[in-house]
Amino acid sequence: MANIEYLLLFLVGSAVISYFLTRLNSFIGSIFTIFATMFVFVSLAAYGFNMNLDTTVSLLPWFSFSQTYLGFFFVIIIAFIYLMVSFFHPYFLDKYPYKNSYNLLFLLSLAGIIGAFYTDHFLQLFFFFEMIIWTTMFLIPQGKSREAAVSYFGFSLTGSVALLIGIFVIYQNVGRFDIQAGLAGISGTTSVFVFVLFMIAALAKLGTFPLHIWLPLAHGNAPHPFSPVLSGALVKLGAFIGILALIKINPIGPVIGAIDLALGQYIIAFIGSLSIVFGTLMAIKEDDAKKLLAYSSMSHGGYILVAFSALNGFAFAGGLYHILAHALASAGAFMAIAAVARATGTTKMKELGGMIHKMPITYLAYLIAIISMAGIPPMGGFISKWLIFQAVIDRGMILIAVAVFFGSVGSFLYVFRPLAALFLGQEFREYKHVKEAPLLMLIPTFIIMGLNIYTGVIPKQIIDFINNIIGENTAFAPVVATTFTVTATYGTLNAGLIALIFGVGVAIAFIIFILMKKSRKVELMDTYTAANFVHDEHLLHYSVDFYAPLERMYEKQSHWMKKFYDALAHKVKEVGKLAKYLFMSNNIGVTLIWILVIIVLLIGVVAL
Amino acid sequence: MIVNILVGIGIALFGFALQTSIGGINRKIVGRLQKRHGPRWYQEFIDIFKLLSKRGISHGWIYDFGVIMALGGIIATAMFMPLTVDIVAFKQFDNFFIFVYLLAVGMLGMAMSASGSGNPWASIGVMRALTTMLAYEVPFLIVALTIINVSDSSSLTAIQAFQQTAGNNWFIIALPLGGLVGVLSLMGMLGKKPFETYIAPAEIASGPMVEYGGKQLGMLFILHEISVFIEVSLFVHLFLGGASNIFIFLIKYFTVYTVVNLISNVNGRFKIDQVVKFFYKWPLLLAIIQAFIAIYLGWVI
Amino acid sequence: MKSTKFTPVPLTKAETDKKWWEIGDFFRRNSLWLLMYCTGCCAIELPPAMTSAYDMERLGMGPMATPRQADILLVSGYLSLKTLRRLIYTYEQMSEPRYVVALGSCPINGGIYHDSHAVINQLDQYIPVDVYVAGCMPNTEAVMNGFVDLMDQIKHKRANGWKKYHENYSWYKANQITSLGEVDVHDEFHE
Ligand code: SF4
């Protein structure tokens, strides 16, 4: 099916069907969801790559669609993550209090996403954004934390209000709601104003530095299969808004001579770098594996901001590549953690150990995901980080480089922690009965593993597609890429060669290993303890306060930060309470009236 | 392509042989420093082959797989390393970042294997190694940023060629502050005192290596020699003008390693948080100042 | 006339293994790493053996941190029952081939503690010992000489204690159990 309108209607329809099917039997409903998502993904992939989708509208009179390479890049990544995650539903749904509506909301939010990236009308963009926020807001508390949902909603609301005001300012100046024309039409102070508003929306959705509080809360408490979507897909909406603001609006302001960059972009890059540093430091300290990954998303959001504000072809390509690489990596990592959580019922690292002996494939999935996340070759994250480094060095952004490098080395620290504490180490007796995840859950795991490697070895197709986006949206020179290589300012990276040589190295090491005498197999507990007899494997498992000496150094500061955020969170909660009072009354009509009132008021204000 | 790969393997092998001999000679030098005879210069070879010939233990597949992955990653990194301007396996692909990040694959493999052994000291050692890495890597990368920005390439051969062109100084002279930071970071990378907190034999029983014996330990020794080769060569190429022929490379290599080793032998050991504090105080500050001077003001000696 | 041309004689598997073993022995005897199990007063003889006075590093020897890495288990002096249990545990953790060197007269026959209720008298009842260095305490030359003896034994394939331990495992185990008794309660305080 190659018509966006039909796709949307199909999703809404199947959402309703899945509701009734899930009511009958959650397994059947979830299987149906898998097929519905798969259908949408396949349609998009089959027609979207060459912009062959049909955008005509016949059944939804107020809507209008257009397709762009940029929008498609986001849609295909997000739809893919949705598809992968839907494979997890059959095994998780029964645990949730409102399992009937889970698939319904899931499919509706996918519809919202497709709409948001294909619309060419600002108000529809806002409408679809709200659709995503509202549907996902009801998905998050299924993980049984209302607080998380409220804070998610609070921050999203901040973002959408900023977006809405920005939209009306544009409308006031240009007189049209058309996205391309609107963005192109503003200039001068207006554009600065819109830039700021759009950036607030972007920061809130991306979960970067000043507006990041919801991120660990929501990611940590969301239902296990929904965290990959949240981190891998939904925060990327922020990146989309960020591109609109940083690249398309690109207000003319004072320029910093030394690095030849507009002040606005530099400030955003600086916020991005703060986000990298804080995200990294908080992730190093975190004990909950999912929250740790959430903080890592925060730091990767920082990378994306830095990349888009460097205003340079390589950086732009690097940023987009990073969106793809991080979506795959974080989805892979979250899915691995979800599989562990399903088997053990916890995501706290201090309660887990030695899962590798029970779940080797899940372990491999996590390993490959974190190699990409830490930007180590031969995975996708390396290529994107390499491109971003080139841009940072090229601009000579020294202070930002400190943060970028810090985040990159710091990521080794935090991604290794779940590896060591959760998967490796001693095997706990309470998890002796645990088994590897079922086959249906391993399918997406394998696919994501493969893609993580693919993005790191053969960059050609992806860079080519990114070049289309560059040509469509910017005046930057396209990035030169052959099948295996990418060329940037300071040289050429041969990703395929690196992978090949890595293979050669491993082969040599393997030959050395196999030629020598076979080792004697011993138990995990038969380990050097200075000749002491220890019979409790918990005592031999080092996982609590893993980076204690490092954590000690900024414990006070992080406390201070926490207090500040607690106060802020309190305020946010109050806002949330207000919002709850106003919007979450039992009567749907009240809600709708309020939304209408706000919109009318805003139109009135802007019109005056 | 096959020829290039063979050259690469040759370089890795050469690096191993070179560092193992120089390591042995340095043990002898240190021995003399302490009024001892010291071992034979080929002692390190004997140690490694002995370890390979012994029958060690294995703690399961991840323990073995991690070692293989670690050694493989390090060999792969060494294969990209240029020896001189001409002797390089993959011309124009010897990108600086490969060395930093492909080295990390090896380290990840080793860390994985060590934690997989189930020994808490191994995990503590890994934790310390990673924390030390967080400390020395950032100042070093900032200096590398300056060098790449000034020499306009991130390929190691191009950086060497840049320093060897008439009128350009070696970067240790051209960027004196950066050179100092480079030496300090190199000591951190090599795990020389005062930054050898993660080995600490008497405190955490040699850290990551606590459970290794037999061939696995032998492979880790090979890994260690090759990674020292990579790190010292990186320093030679970045700061000391690289080499136009192999003898100059040998002389520079030997000098750098010996000097660092001598400095190391008159030092005590830092605590892990002291290491972090140290690197984030002076070296980072110096690196940033150097970058400002060189990039924004254009003052390069 | 017989041909003077060199014709390689194909070696059997056992012969090749033996050749490799001899090559391995060369490396092993030139790089002996110690695990110092400093149980008694003889341990005081080790610092001069390691430092500039006698410098054991010139023989390729050196101290190591854990039993997994070490080749020699160096028992320096008397062994109480409590330490014996740990000594055996340590010995069993070492990689093969492994050697045991015992310093002082205490491990040989109990030395001046021969009538103590808490100290064992003969170490080689429990684990095989390759080299004894007698004396109470043996001076450093004797200690060094003991190491050279061990190298000689390795060269002539006489340092076979670790093989004996495998062959007579049940005998050693029985002795160990008679002296130490079975351990019933498995926790940190009862062993
Ligand atoms: S042999 Fe003598 S010096 Fe050695 S441990 Fe026994 S009593 Fe002490």
From the N-terminal CA to the C-terminal CA of chain A, the straight-line distance is 44 Å
- Mean model confidence by pLDDT of chain C: 83
| Average pLDDT level of chain A | 81
Strand fraction of chain A equals: under 5%
Count helical runs of chain C: 7
What does the main sheet of chain C amount to? Answer: 5 strands, parallel
- How many separate helices of chain A? 23
Q: How large is the radius of gyration of chain C?
A: 20 Å
Strand fraction of chain C equals: 5-15%
Number of domains of chain A: 2
Task: Find the structural class of chain C using helix and strand composition.
Answer: alpha/beta
* Multimerization status: heterotrimer
Global outline of chain A: globular
Write the layout of secondary structure elements.
The complex is a heterotrimer of chains A (608), B (301) and C (191).
Chain A: H1 4-24, H2 26-48, H3 69-86, H4 89-92, H5 99-118, H6 122-139, H7 146-174, H8 179-185, H9 188-206, H10 214-221, H11 227-234, H12 236-249, E1 255-256, E2 261-262, H13 263-285, H14 289-309, H15 313-344, H16 360-373, H17 380-395, H18 398-423, H19 439-457, H20 460-473, E3 480-481, E4 485-488, E5 491-494, H21 495-515, E6 520-521, H22 548-583, H23 588-607
Antiparallel strand pairs in A: 1-2, 3-4, 4-5
Helix pairs in contact in A: 1-2, 1-5, 2-3, 2-5, 3-5, 3-11, 3-15, 5-6, 6-7, 7-8, 7-9, 7-10, 7-22, 7-23, 9-12, 10-11, 10-14, 11-15, 12-14, 13-14, 13-18, 14-15, 14-18, 15-16, 15-17, 15-19, 15-20, 16-18, 16-19, 17-18, 17-19
Chain B: H1 2-33, H2 43-53, E1 57-58, H3 61-80, H4 96-116, H5 120-151, H6 156-164, H7 171-174, H8 176-190, H9 201-204, H10 214-239, H11 246-265, H12 272-297
Helix pairs in contact in B: 1-3, 1-10, 2-10, 3-4, 3-10, 4-5, 4-10, 5-8, 5-12, 8-10, 8-12, 10-11
Chain C: H1 13-29, E1 33-37, H2 46-50, E2 62-63, E3 72-76, H3 81-93, E4 99-103, H4 106-109, E5 131-133, H5 140-155, H6 161-167, H7 169-180
Parallel strand pairs in C: 1-2, 1-3, 3-4, 4-5
Helix pairs in contact in C: 1-5
